[in-house]
Specification:
The chain has 415 residues and is mainly α. 73% of the residues lie in helices and 1% in strands. The protein is built from 18 helices and 2 strands. It has helices at residues 3-16, 20-48, 59-74, 78-81, 83-91, 105-114, 119-132, 135-160, 174-184, 190-225, 230-245, 248-277, 282-295, 302-318, 324-329, 337-344, 346-366, 395-414; strands spanning 163-164, 170-171. Strand 1 and strand 2 (170-171) form a beta hairpin. Helix 17 (346-366) packs across helix 18 (395-414). Mean pLDDT is 80; it is low at 14-23 and 404-415.
Length: 415
């Protein structure tokens, strides 16, 4: 039995012997922590997601969309022209093990994907479709395609301006290319912005990078095994993550290159099974996506609501323009920065165009979104803020319910 196995068994033992008294105390602790973070981050979140005056479109999402559009045209649709070349690079066709860096192109891509493929594809898509209807999927795909150009830009810069040390290690990311790039062009404020990014990146990793994931994972697990203290899930997750990251980027890459492909294939495979079981509804589902993108089909906010939700959830899912992926991609073994830019543009494609679309199709064909038989439009909930669903589920709950109902429903329809 190795050290990792013993460590995980110890964590499991702690969870198994937690007492009911501790459980009650932890519920109060969870609520206090949530209230404290809500009070501290509430004003900042309101500022970041404040709508552009006269519209309901958040300015931060508009900023990312405009940047992606500029990069797409400036680099002459790089996401289309070099897509095939990017796959060749990931396969290792042009790799040189003697180049500076710590991980291969594939490992860098897997490491970056490990931070994006997850709840953004599950809960995020469910929220987008639940509020903006199937039409949100169209705008999500469009945002993902344009985000490929953004990812290409930031990851190329991450490798170009990275630091390479004598011991063979490297470090890079926006904090480096902002400070070095500004200085190179004689512009002031580079170091200040680099420090500001670093602070925001740490805070983002704390909240959006792990708290949200642990919270939703706990909700799923407790829904299966019964309610138990949330801190137990947090400790187990923290222990597993510690075992992985304690060895540095090479250790992370070794784990992610095995876990991420398995995770992605398993999820897409499950979605494909559900879709193929309901093959007669595939054409209808795509019709709902395209019609809803431009008409709204009676969803909250109409066409604009579908557009906003699609762009918002795509930005959350693939993190194009956020800067976090550039840190992982900067560790790649290469002497040509642009090669990792080509590899990185695959990330939004896999994350948003493929996996998010699969989730949206499954939700659309599942019948969980309630349609008014008289008008053919989707019915809204009592508050008028989202589409009414069977059982009132949303987010992760909505997506998980699809897997449970799809097979029995299909078998009943066949019989």
């Amino acid at each position: 039995m190795n050290k990792i196995d013993k460590y995980l068994i110890a964590l499991g033992s702690v969870a198994a012997f937690a007492s009911p008294a501790i459980a009650q105390e932890s519920e109060g602790l969870d609520a206090k922590v949530n209230a404290a973070f809500s009070a501290a981050t509430g004003p900042f979140v309101s500022l970041i997601f404040a709508p552009i005056p006269g519209t309901s479109f958040p300015w931060i999402v508009m900023w990312l969309v405009i940047a992606a559009t500029i990069f797409t045209f400036y680099f002459s649709f790089v996401q289309l022209k070099f897509f095939k070349h990017a796959i060749s690079l990931v396969k290792g066709d042009y790799s040189n093990p003697n180049d500076a860096g710590e991980v291969s192109h594939f490992q860098a891509l897997a490491t970056a994907l490990s931070g994006t493929v997850g709840l953004g594809n599950i809960a995020g898509v469910a929220v987008a479709v639940g509020i903006g209807g199937p039409g949100a999927t169209f705008w999500m795909i469009l945002a993902g395609l344009m985000g490929m150009a953004t990812k290409f830009t930031e990851c190329t810069l991450g490798v170009k301006y990275r630091n390479e040390y004598a011991d063979g290690t490297v470090s890079g990311g926006p904090m480096y290319y902002i400070s070095k790039g500004f200085k190179e062009r004689g512009l002031p404020g580079g170091k200040f912005l680099a420090v500001l990014f670093s602070i925001f990146c740490i805070l983002g990793a704390l909240g959006g990078g792990n708290m949200f994931q642990a919270n939703q994972a706990h909700a799923q697990i407790s829904g299966i095994v019964g309610d138990y203290p949330g801190w137990i899930t947090g400790i187990v997750f923290a222990g597993v993550v510690f075992v992985v990251i304690v060895g540095g980027v090479k250790s992370i890459a070794r784990v992610t290159e095995k876990v991420v492909p398995f995770m992605g294939v398993l999820y897409v495979g499950a979605a494909m099974i559900i879709i193929l079981m309901n093959y007669d509804q595939i054409g209808w589902a795509f019709g709902q996506i395209f019609a809803g993108a431009f008409t709204g089909l009676g969803v909250a906010g109409g066409m604009v609501g579908a557009l906003i939700q699609g762009f918002k959830r795509a930005a959350f899912s693939n993190e194009a323009g956020v800067g976090s992926a550039a840190i992982a991609h900067s560790a790649v073994k290469t002497k040509e920065p642009i090669t990792e830019g080509f590899v990185s543009l695959l990330e939004p494609f896999i994350d948003t165009v493929v996996i998010c679309t699969m989730t949206a199709l499954v939700i659309t064909i599942s019948g969980q979104l309630i349609v008014d038989p008289a008008t053919g439009n989707y019915m809204l909930n009592e508050g008028g803020t989202a589409i009414a669903t069977v059982g009132g589920t949303s987010g992760v709950g909505l997506t998980l319910s699809l897997i449970h109902i799809s097979e029995p429903t299909r078998l009943l329809s066949i019989s």
